[in-house]
From TrEMBL:
Keywords for this protein: Signal
Organism: Methylobacterium tardum
Annotated signal sequence range: 1-24
Lineage: Bacteria, Pseudomonadati, Pseudomonadota, Alphaproteobacteria, Hyphomicrobiales
Name of protein: Pilus formation protein N-terminal domain-containing protein
Residue ranges annotated for the Pilus formation protein N-terminal domain, each copy included: 34-101
Entries under Pfam families matching the protein: T2SS-T3SS_pil_N
Amino acid sequence: MRRTLSHAGRTGLILCLMAGAAAAAGQPDPLPVVTILVDNAKVIRLPEKTSTVIVGNPIIAEVTPQKNGVLVLTGKSFGSTNLIALDNAGAMIAETTIRVEASRDSTITVQRGLERESLSCTPNCQPSVQLGDSANFFGATSGQADARRKLATSGGGAVPAADH
């Protein structure tokens, strides 16, 4: 008795063989991923003998090298980029994907038509400037924060006590 594969069986077998051939052809493994929240920092350790660190898009993530192969990674903007470590000869010794995401734990977004505002609720809700907020809200809130910061660093308008 002779057995034959159905059309679906032949298609499945061909797909399995193609997937196996692609794996055998040396398809690169996916890059490891480091996920960080925007406006947050994470400490990562570089491979030994790293002499140069490259960030694909420094608008998304920023790196600050420290001593002993330690690097501080800071999320600057939403998105994905890569980080490459090179040795003294310029050879790549590591590459990873950096994914910068928004914090979802304590941020509430208020949408008023086309105008978007963000509130940080930790636990009381206060205005919080976030990427994607409307220009009016962003400008007003960041302007107030800057004015407050200037008052705090200039002595807050306090008058020095008179000498008696």
